[in-house]
Every structure is written in structure tokens, then in C-alpha cells.
Design brief:
This protein is of the alpha+beta class and 163 residues long. It is built from four helices and ten strands; from the N terminus they run αββββαβαβαββββ.
Length: 163
């Protein structure tokens, strides 16, 4: 079957990309904003860009007032984030699309799932196969409206790998 991309609805485009590229479980990005508000959101498209400097990217949809856009705003403000690749057990335990809670409340919703990062402020998830602690390299805006995206490029500063 051949698809003319210009004739596809936005959801059909998303489904085709997800089917082809997003074949692994999504990564969870954890951030703290300037007031130490903790945000966690899942992103299905995460990929390596470069080895030196080690760089990873992920796109954030331009839809307004979602956990994903809160993550984008926090990254733009602080320049730090963790890309977490959770284990299958953690994916089952983290059965929510995203969350935002004040870090100073000791909220069990997030505290039980996070641990201190080595090189940046935002915590990483505890039960992960891999976690990449990143500093913002660049945000590139592509497209307009709700179908557009802000692509976040992060320079990896530390890597955690489960033994």
C-alpha cells in the first residue's frame, strides 16, 4: 500500500510513524522546573543523534497545556532533564500518561519511583534499564499548530544502566 502523506489525516500520520519507529516502549522524561515542581511524561520517539558529543533527541507535540508541554517549558527554563527507559515492571507500575507534583511534598506518587541523579537536579526513575542525564543543547521548532513539534536535543552528561 502506498500513502500520499499530504492526503493523510494527522492521526493517520501519527499512527504510521508510531507503528514504524515507535516499536519499543516509550521513554519517560523527568524534569524539575525552577520552583522544583516535578514533571514526568512519556515520549514514544526518542533517538540518538551523535556520539561526540553524545546527543539524544525527542519531539514534543505543540498541543497546549499537556504534561508534555510542561516538560518542554521546564527544560527550556532549567536546561536539564533525564530520559528514562523503564523496565517492563516499571511500565506496569507507572500506569498513568503523565504527572506533575510539587517535589517538596514528598508525594508517594513520584517519590517511590525516583532517585537522585548524578550530574543534574531532576531525579531519574528508580526502576529503569537505562537513564540518560542530559543538559539542553537546542530546541528546534518544526511545523505549526497542534501538528507541529518542538524537537529537544540533549547532551548526555551521565548514564545509569541497570546491572
Amino acid at each position: 500500500m502506498i500513502y500520499a502523506v499530504d492526503s493523510l489525516a494527522e492521526q493517520d500520520r501519527k499512527n504510521l510513524l508510531s507503528d514504524a519507529i515507535g516499536l519499543r516502549p516509550p521513554a519517560w522524561v523527568s524534569v524539575l522546573d525552577r520552583s522544583s515542581q516535578f514533571y514526568l511524561a512519556s515520549f514514544p520517539f526518542v533517538t540518538a543523534v551523535c556520539i561526540d558529543p553524545m546527543t539524544i533527541l525527542f519531539p514534543v507535540n505543540n498541543a497546549e497545556d499537556t504534561a508534555e508541554t510542561l516538560v518542554l517549558r521546564a527544560i527550556a527554563a532549567t536546561g536539564e532533564f533525564v530520559i528514562n527507559f523503564p523496565t517492563q515492571a516499571a511500565i506496569a507500575a507507572l500506569n498513568f500518561p503523565a504527572m506533575a507534583v510539587p517535589i517538596d511534598q514528598g508525594n508517594a506518587d513520584w517519590a517511590a519511583f525516583t532517585t537522585r541523579s548524578q550530574s543534574i537536579r531532576p531525579p531519574r526513575l528508580t526502576d529503569v534499564a537505562l537513564a540518560f542525564e542530559c543538559r539542553l543543547h537546542q530546541v528546534m521548532k518544526m511545523g505549526l499548530g497542534p501538528g507541529g513539534t518542538s524537537v529537544i536535543f540533549g547532551d548526555v552528561k551521565s548514564i545509569y544502566q541497570q546491572e
